[in-house]
């Protein structure tokens, strides 16, 4: 009797876990639609975070700062969020460039951000060619 | 018996066979005519972060025989990116009449998501090409699950889980080395075409180290499959007088 109860318990526990997993494979589309509907359409990237101490924590993803660009900020952004093209937004570029990064799976899991990272290190004394560069490949 | 030996019998036998063969050839030809190697579609992507969204529109043109993918980005500046199977990339900016040449095998046309769907390579959707290896497979109810281990060069990603329903991927999950989920991708509302199946929507959730997330929603529409190129973008020619970035830099 105990064995049967245990087996039944095990069966329902497994069933429950399976159902829980299965639920995570589906998306609540209405919720996503609502999030997009409530969002404000923008073509501009807004403010940068509070500074280096905040990175990568508390950092808004789509950011372009006005004024001088810091190569260290760009490098950190590239390192942590390069796959989303955030460093390009920081350095100044067209919206589509960043979107292009995302559409290519972060420059194919980081090949383009990796090269961005290297050229930023090499040219750390003068990153002006990469500032406000509208091209997909900034180097 | 006499009839079997007459040329008339052999002719009728042969003509029957020829008739059947001709029927098969015609059927095949009509199937090929319906399929076509030229796939055009519109892609709209919305990216949501911190209650702000960005929308972009791209027209994609895939010459599946030559494995050439052309993307027309409707943006400012507008640009056209042509990629072949070797990863040779030509990016043309019509406003400034400038062209940029690059080569990255990782960005080759045959490593694009659309290419994988059009060629029914949905069992891995490019993971194999990125060096991922299949480590296990299992069933969970109606779902078929595959687990992929990342190559050692991808330090940030530990594993990828792919979930299939009715033979097509419906969900992917990327995990970091600390088992935290980096990315969830949902493939929604599959549409059936003659040669392939394509989700009309892909929702991707990227989890940031901050705890926030970036959601991207991509919708595919106006899918056209033709046997002949019906758009100049399939054989996009960059003007001869376009200035090269590299030449400009060298001057």
Description:
The complex is a heterodimer of chains A (139) and B (251). Chain A is mainly α. Chain A has two domains: 2-38; 52-130, no CATH class. Chain A is 55% helix and 1% strand. Chain A has helices spanning 2-24, 29-38, 71-81, 86-91, 95-103, 105-122; one strand spanning 40-41. In chain A, helix 3 (71-81) packs antiparallel against helix 6 (105-122) and helix 5 (95-103) crosses helix 6 (105-122). The longest helix of chain A has 23 residues, at 2-24. Chain A starts with a helix and ends in a 17-residue tail after the last helix. Chain B is of the alpha+beta class. Chain B folds into two domains: 1-35; 36-239, Lipoprotein localisation LolA/LolB/LppX (outer membrane lipoprotein receptor (LolB), chain A, Clam). Chain B is built from three helices and 14 strands. Chain B has helices at residues 7-35, 113-118, 245-250; strands spanning 38-49, 52-63, 68-74, 79-83, 88-93, 98-103, 133-140, 143-149, 157-165, 168-176, 181-192, 197-207, 213-226, 243-244. Chain B is globular and about 55 Å long. Chain B starts with 6 loop residues before the first helix and ends with a helix. Chains A and B meet through helix 1, helix 2, strand 1, helix 5 and helix 6 of A and strand 1, strand 2, strand 9 and strand 13 of B. Strand 1 (40-41) of chain A pairs parallel with strand 2 (52-63) of chain B, so a sheet runs across the interface.
């Amino acid at each position: 009797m105990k064995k049967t109860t245990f087996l039944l318990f095990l069966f329902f526990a497994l069933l429950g876990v399976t159902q829980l997993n299965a639920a995570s494979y589906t998306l609540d589309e209405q919720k996503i639609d609502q999030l997009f509907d409530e969002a404000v359409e923008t073509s501009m990237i807004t403010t940068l975070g509070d500074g280096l101490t905040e990175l990568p924590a508390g950092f808004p993803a789509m950011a372009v700062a006005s004024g001088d660009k810091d190569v260290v900020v760009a490098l950190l952004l590239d390192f942590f969020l390069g796959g989303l093209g955030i460093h390009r937004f920081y350095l100044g570029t067209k919206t589509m460039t960043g979107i292009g990064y995302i559409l290519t799976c972060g420059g194919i899991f980081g090949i383009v951000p990796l090269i961005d990272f290297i050229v930023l290190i090499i040219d750390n004394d003068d990153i002006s060619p990469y500032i406000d560069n509208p091209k997909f490949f900034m180097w | 018996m006499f009839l079997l030996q007459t040329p008339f019998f052999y002719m009728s036998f042969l003509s029957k066979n020829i008739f059947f063969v001709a029927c098969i050839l015609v059927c095949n030809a009509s199937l090929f005519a319906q399929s076509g190697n030229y796939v055009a579609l519109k892609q709209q992507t919305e990216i949501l972060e911190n209650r702000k969204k960005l929308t972009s529109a791209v027209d994609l043109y895939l010459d599946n025989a030559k494995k050439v993918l052309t993307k027309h980005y409707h943006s400012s500046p507008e640009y056209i990116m042509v990629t072949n199977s070797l990863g040779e990339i030509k990016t043309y900016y019509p406003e400034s009449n400038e062209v940029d040449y690059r080569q990255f095998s990782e960005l080759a046309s045959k490593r694009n998501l659309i290419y994988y769907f059009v060629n029914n390579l949905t069992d891995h959707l490019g993971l194999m090409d990125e060096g991922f290896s299949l480590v296990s497979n299992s069933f969970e109810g109606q779902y078929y699950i595959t687990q992929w281990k990342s190559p050692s060069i991808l330090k940030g990603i530990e594993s990828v889980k792919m979930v299939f329903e009715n033979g097509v991927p419906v969900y992917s999950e990327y995990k970091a080395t600390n088992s935290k989920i980096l990315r969830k991708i949902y493939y929604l509302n599959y549409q059936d075409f003659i040669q392939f199946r394509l989700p009309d929507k892909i929702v991707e959730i990227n989890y940031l180290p901050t705890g926030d997330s970036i959601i991207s929603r991509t919708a595919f529409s106006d899918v056209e499959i033709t046997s002949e190129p019906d758009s100049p973008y399939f054989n996009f020619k960059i003007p001869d007088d376009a200035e090269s970035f590299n030449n400009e830099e060298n001057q």
